[in-house]
Amino acid sequence: MTKRVEGTGADEAKAAAIDELGVAVSRGEPLAHHTWLAIGGEAAWFCEPVDVEALARVVRRCQQQSIPVRVIGGGSNVLVPTGGFPGMVIRLSAPAFCGISVEQPLVRAGAGAKLVHVVSAAVQAGLAGLEMLVDIPGTVGGAVVGNAGGHGGDIGQRVREVTVMLSDGTVETRGRPKLAFESRWSNLDDGLVIGCCFELDEEDPALLTKRMQKQWIVGRGGQPSGTRNVAMMFKDPLGTTAEALIEQAGGRDLRAGEAAVHPPHANYVVAGPGCSADDVRRLVELVRDRVRQRLGVELTPLIQVW
Ligand SMILES: Cc1cc2nc3c(=O)[nH]c(=O)nc-3n(C[C@H](O)[C@H](O)[C@H](O)COP(=O)(O)OP(=O)(O)OC[C@H]3O[C@@H](n4cnc5c(N)ncnc54)[C@H](O)[C@@H]3O)c2cc1C
Fold first, then answer.
1. Would you state the torsion angle of the CA atoms of residues 75, 76, 78, 79, taken in this order, to the nearest 10 degrees?
2. The pTM of the whole model exceeds 0.90
3. Which residues is 268 bridged to in the sheet?
4. Catalytic site positions
5. Which residue, 31, 135, 136, 43, is CA-closest to 88?
6. Helix axis angle, 115-124 relative to 205-221, nearest 10°?
7. Where are the alpha helices (DSSP H) in 146-240?
């Protein structure tokens, strides 16, 4: 279902420029359909380009028309405001962006590939180094941009090179010297990640499979079950976990409107029926204040607010 973007002459000129692209672009796409929290407003424009050439045409046109662009991966770390996103949201779901190939000891993956599929492919090929990420939801693009990880390590440690599309549609491959990864952060904030190459270690596939399965069970046990309307609120500070700090500060029962801390796993927010993006924002601030006041620790939000 598409909707018209009503507005000024300038808005109409932008809409016409997008319509002329020859790429299937929908208007007024509800972003709640694309995020784990399942809340928030619409994207003014939304598309799933079929290949790199179509993607380049979209981003170039958006740059020419001063239309802001965002990529949505698995939507497991995004909070969309009630007002939505006034630009182009791109999902790299086409097969051209989801491929996975193994050339020992390298694994190449498109940014739209699910992280769990890349981990499984690596393990099957007897390549170690990503298995501790098996329980992290989302795509390769989202994981690399946010340097996803946990106590077993971060994805950035295994990245050999990343392929990025810049806002003028050009594509460049960046090797290690140009890449920086820190805790839940990378310097990949100036373009769209379209692919990544990981360098791994050869190991016995049977042993690796056991390790991956163990991580899956332990990791999933540490996540809320029974609902998908959740998000992780904070980064773990050095030497401890956000969950432990929230519990120590007595934050397990906090709520704001229909957003509540998930009591068994206190670093997650659960969005109840009718929850708004403002409820989630207020809860994140409430929990942050509580930990600051009671423990003197400043938690850093993980969730990306658009
Ligand atoms: C149940 C649960 C468990 C989680 N466990 C962990 C965990 O253990 N460790 C951890 O680090 N995180 C965890 N997270 C957070 C989240 O899953 C990760 O941050 C994940 O890597 C996000 O990937 P995504 O594809 O869903 O990204 P999205 O949520 O879609 O996007 C996140 C951000 O990255 C940007 N982005 C996405 N793809 C691209 C791209 N191709 N190019 C440029 N920008 C892009 C988006 O614009 C957005 O700003 C968890 C979340 C949930 C809900």
1. 110
2. yes
3. 232
4. 184
5. 43
6. 150
7. 205-221
Phi, psi angle pair for 290, to nearest 5° = -60, -45
Angstrom distance (rounded) from CA 80 to CA 217: 30
The SS3 of residue 217 is helix
CA of 22: how far to CAs of 49, 65, 189, in Å?
10, 16, 28
- What three-state secondary structure class fits 220? helix
139 lines ligand 1 (CB under 6 A): yes
Ligand 1 center to residue 92 CA distance, Å?
14
One pLDDT digit (tens) per residue for the chain, 306 residues: 444 445 566 688 888 889 888 889 999 999 999 999 999 999 999 999 999 999 999 999 999 999 999 999 999 999 999 999 999 999 999 999 999 999 999 999 999 999 999 999 999 999 999 999 999 999 999 999 999 998 889 999 999 999 999 999 999 999 999 999 999 999 999 999 999 999 999 999 999 999 999 999 999 999 998 888 999 999 999 999 999 999 999 999 999 999 999 999 999 999 999 999 999 999 999 999 999 999 999 999 999 999
* 276 C-beta closer than 6 A to ligand 1: no
Residue 146 CB-density burial (10 A; 0-12 exposed, 13-18 middle, 19+ buried): buried
Determine whether the shortest distance from the Cβ of 138 to ligand 1 is under 6 A: yes
Domains of the chain by start residue, with CATH = 9-94 (3.30.43.10), 98-221 (3.30.465.10), 230-305 (3.90.78.10)
